[in-house]
Structure formats: structure tokens, C-alpha cells
Amino acid sequence: MPATDHPLKRVFMLAPTAFATWLLNEPVISVTTRKDEIYGSPEAIDADLIFFATTASQHETIVHIELQGVGSHRPMPLRVLEYNVRILVQHPTTIVRSFVLYVGGAGANDMGSHTRTDHNGHVLLAWQYGVIHLWKMTSEELLALDPPALAVLIGQTKIVNPERDLRLAMQRIYNHTEGELRLNFFSELLSLCTNQEILAMAQQIYHHDYGLPEPLIITLSREEGREKGREEGREEGREEGREEGRESVLLRLLSRRLGPLPAPVVAQVQQLGGERLLDLADAIFDFATLADLTAWLDAHAAVPTD
């Protein structure tokens, strides 16, 4: 799974109306996910994101989004076709619009229009979807778009003038958001700066211009990297202390987001270690309810961390 997968999903979930408006290229007044209806059915659809968008003209459109980096083992055209058919089976009267957002150099030859023909060249099947090669887009093109949420994606574009454009992206987020949403946007912007030089510059601007604390996911990622680089003979007690510190930070953040945590849930978090703690930090903004957290813990409890 590409390192950008979770941050991109979180960004879209933080501002679904803004992204649906951008993709559909028309005003969207509301967006819902209906997770139980799409993902909880016996024929669960393993798509990246599915939104139900109501446009200003009061038409409902299902917006299906795939986020793709390099290294996919399944051809994207066939994946989109499969998801479209499965969505249409459940919602035969609703328009479905699919989009693929490529990052990191992926999908260079995918223009979103595909056919299958017989041996005489007659078209038997045709389908199409929107394609955005984010890695081909310049930072200037991204910043020319209106929704401030899109500025979070700047680290995945071709940045023309890094210091200027990073500062403009952060200024747009700061000026048009507030509170937890602002902090979440800043966190995901930093997470999506996969180039280390760009990340270092973004972090410097973040601290110098806004004086805000470093986002948790960046702190945990750095700690994880440091631990991997240490010698295997390091003192076990100090290692346990560091892990307990991460557990404590995660538990506090989860409590702030979801309310008081039951003792069994706290125990499950404490049983996680190493990579799983980082995975949990990566997924925090996906949780809207305590049930989302417990489902995640149940799904990951039996997965080896080594």
C-alpha cells in the first residue's frame, strides 16, 4: 500500500463536498458516505471511496474514487469496471461517476477510456472514467483551484517554486479553516510531502509562520524511523518506555476524538506495538464513532506486526 493511501483517503473524508465539487465540476450541496449501505452489504465493494453527492440541481450522483500509486497488481481499468458493475447492481437508477487519482508517477498511459472488442474489431464493451494525474499537475495549477482543501495535495504535485507555493498552500488552509479541521489539513499536507526536502521546508514554514505543534503522525513516523535505525542491543526498558509514551499519546487523542474509552478498548490499544501503533495513528481521522475504532482494533488484533 503506498504511503500516500491513508493520508489521501483522510483528506477526501475531511472535505468530501469540496472534492466532489471539484471532480464533478458542478456545485455540490451535500455529501454522505452511507458506509453500511455500500461497504457492509454481503457483496461488499472494496473501493477506496464512495460518496453520495447531491448537486445544486438536486440530482444524486454516486462518486466513486480510486487513489492509485505505483505497484498495483490489478489493472485499474478492470478494477473500475468491476466496481461500477457492483455499485450499479445495488443502485441501478443512480448515476455513477468514477474517478482515478494517480500519484507518484502511476497511470501514465491511462486516459480513462477503454473498450473490449471481438476478433473483427467490433466493440463489445466500452466504459470510461475521469483520470487525474496529480503528479503531472503543477503546484500553480493546483493553487489556481478554489477549494482550500485541494491545497493539502500540493506535496504530490510538481512544485514550481517550493518556498513560495508551500507558503501559499498553508496560508490558504490557515485563512479558510479553523480549529480541528485546520490542524488536520496541516497534518495531512505534511504527510503528503513524500519528498524529504519538500517536507523539511514545509515543516519549517509550518513552525515559523504558525507556531503550531508538530502533528502527531509526523512525530510518530520520525520516532519509528529512529527506532529502526538503532542497534538491536539497545536497552529493553528504554524501548518499552518509548512505546508506552506513544500509547499514551494515542489514547489521549482517541479520547478527545471519541470520548472516554472503555477499559477493554484501552487494553486492545496497549496490546498493539511498533508498526501497529503507527497504523493506528494513521487511521485516527477515519474514526467517527467508538464502533469504528473497535472494528479497526478487531481487524488488526490478529495481524502479526513483524
Helix-strand blueprint:
Blueprint lengths: L4 H10 L1 H9 L3 E5 L2 H4 L10 E7 L4 E9 L7 H15 L4 E8 L10 E5 L5 E6 L1 E4 L5 H5 L18 H15 L2 H13 L4 H15 L5 H14 L6 H23 L4 H9 L3 H9 L6 H11 L6
Parallel strand pairs: 3-4, 4-7
Antiparallel strand pairs: 1-2, 2-3, 5-6
Helix pairs in contact: 1-7, 6-7, 6-8, 9-12
Core attributes:
globular, 3 domains, 306 residues, five-stranded mixed β-sheet, single chain, alpha/beta, 50% helix, two-stranded antiparallel ribbon
Task: Give the CA-CA distance, first to last residue.
Answer: 16 Å
Helix content: 40-55%
What is the residue-mean pLDDT, rounded to a whole number? 84
* Rg measurement, Å: 21 Å
| Largest pleated sheet | 5 strands, mixed
Estimated structural class: alpha/beta
Principal-axis shape: globular
Strand content: 5-15%
